[in-house]
Design brief:
By secondary structure, this protein is mainly α. Helices cover 57% and strands 0% of the residues. The chain has a domain at 16-50. The protein has helices at 2-10, 14-42, 45-52, 56-61, 76-80, 85-103, 110-130, 134-137, 152-164. The model is unreliable at 187-199 (pLDDT under 50). Heme 1 binds at residues 48, 51, 98.
């Protein structure tokens, strides 16, 4: 009996091979499709809001990235998730630690979130600085800006930033979320005393 099994196993029929190939292809399609559905769901505003409804979602919904005259809406993943494959998966793995922190109670209330806001913000600002604000530049970049259509101060600052090799997050830290309390912080990210963050 065992000998017969190994004989058939070593010399399978064409129908058997065909069945295995078709079954493997169908399983691959189903797994890849399910994986992509799960991936897209975890990139959605609905998913992000399930944990952040009481902290950053109200700030985001009050920002021009959510509601504006042109009707162009940016969702969480547009700013916090790179589009390129390797950077996207690197960020997804990093984000799993953030989900773990929420599930274990480290940042599961507004008060706890606020206590950690500065550290989380600085980590995100550093990530964006390191990749030249790529997520911002998917929609905004110096090469496509018509400085003559901007207010004088914006045109001047954008021209200077382009010349000096600055990136979006250098000036636009409070664009979609409230800034953390940075009193007494000597971080390169903190605005100067009495300086209002650029919006």
């Amino acid at each position: 009996m065992i000998k017969a099994f190994w004989t058939k196993f070593r010399t399978p029929s064409k129908i058997g091979v065909g069945f295995i190939v078709v079954a493997a292809a169908l399983a691959g399609i189903l797994l890849w499709g399910g994986f992509n559905v799960a991936l897209e769901y975890t990139n959605s505003e609905k998913f992000c809001s399930s944990c952040h409804m009481n902290d950053v979602v109200p700030e985001y919904r009050a920002s021009p990235h959510y509601n504006n005259r042109s009707g162009v809406k940016v969702i969480c993943s547009d700013c916090h998730l790179p589009k390129e494959f390797i950077p996207k998966w690197t960020r997804k793995i990093e984000a799993s630690k953030e989900v773990y922190a929420y599930l274990t109670g480290k940042v599961d209330t507004k008060e706890k979130f606020e206590a950690h806001r500065l550290a989380m913000a600085e980590r995100e600002w550093a990530r964006m600085k390191a990749n030249n604000s790529q997520e911002c530049r998917n929609c905004h970049n110096f090469q496509d800006m018509d400085f003559t259509q901007q207010k004088n101060v914006a045109a001047k600052m954008h021209a200077m930033a382009e010349k000096e090799g600055k990136t979006c997050i250098d000036c636009h830290k409070g664009i979609a979320h409230d800034l953390p309390d940075m009193k007494g912080i000597k971080s390169g990210f903190a605005p100067k005393e009495n300086e209002q963050p650029a919006k």
